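User: As part of a screening pipeline, I want to sanity-check one entry by hand. Below is the sequence and the SMILES for S-adenosylmethionine. Please return the complex as structure tokens so I can compare it with the automated output.
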Amino acid sequence: MSQNIDNSSQSGNIQETIKDLYVSRYEAGATEESPEESRTEMAANVITKIIAHFDQQDAEDMYIADLAAGPASVEREIFKVIQKGEIRYASEADFNKLYAAIGRVHFYTYDIAGDPKDPQFMDMAQILDINHTVGDLTTCELPAQQFDLVISNLGVDLIPERDLALRNALQSAKPDAEFIFHFHHRQIAKNIIEQGGMTNDCMDAMNYINESNHYFSDIESIRVYLQNLGFDVHFLFVGVETVEDPRVHNGPLDRWWIIKAKKSLR
Ligand SMILES: C[S@@+](CC[C@H](N)C(=O)[O-])C[C@H]1O[C@@H](n2cnc3c(N)ncnc32)[C@H](O)[C@@H]1O
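Assistant: Here is the complex for your manual check:
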């Protein structure tokens, strides 16, 4: 059973509201729109995948897509690791492999609102080879069979017509590509509503997401939803924020679903 918000004019309005909200946040200088633990966990997983990719004999360059990437929030975490020479993400030998992979990994970030232009982004875009596209993932066609790894940190599942974005993601991936998604837990919409303090438009959008059960509340429904779209899910877990984010809630902790999948072979 699909939990997608239907393709109505209401979802179109909600999409506009979501876009406006993030445009204003990024114009005000926000460099991320997600809990730190979710971002750093995603960054650590990407680093592990890069190291594994280049451990293969005769490995070709690696192409990574980050969907609904905001202002390249996850890439900023990866860049911090590389800049500080942090080896807590990997052994020293593995860190050296990561370092050696720079120049052979190519990031393609997509977002309807995020258009980073800050000097920090410009520096890291050059070093990490980040290619950013401003676009709606439900209407812009991603390059076909291009990516070895497709990620989205609390991004693609927010999109009102997320089926379209996820099908777009599927066709953009190489046959043996890996997908790593963090999806919002249903509780997050409730927390945000309880917190209040939003404009009327944002409140409408959040009520819509909440009442239409757009976010997931259990593992099985995510597995079935993604399987129906053509993903083969091999890892599903719930992530928890350990430090409360006062912007989002003052009650229960944020939670998100950690999902790893491949293209199904059917
Ligand atoms: C919760 S933020 C997460 C941003 C980023 N991944 C991070 O970790 O900070 C959700 C993002 O989804 C983007 N978004 C919403 N609808 C979109 C669409 N149709 N196409 C592309 N991006 C979209 C928003 O602009 C926003 O940047």
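Points to compare against the pipeline: DSSP finds nine helices and seven strands in the chain. The pocket of S-adenosylmethionine is lined by residues 15, 18, 22, 32-34, 39, 68-70, 73-74, 110-114, 136-138, 153-155, 158-159 (CB under 6 Å).
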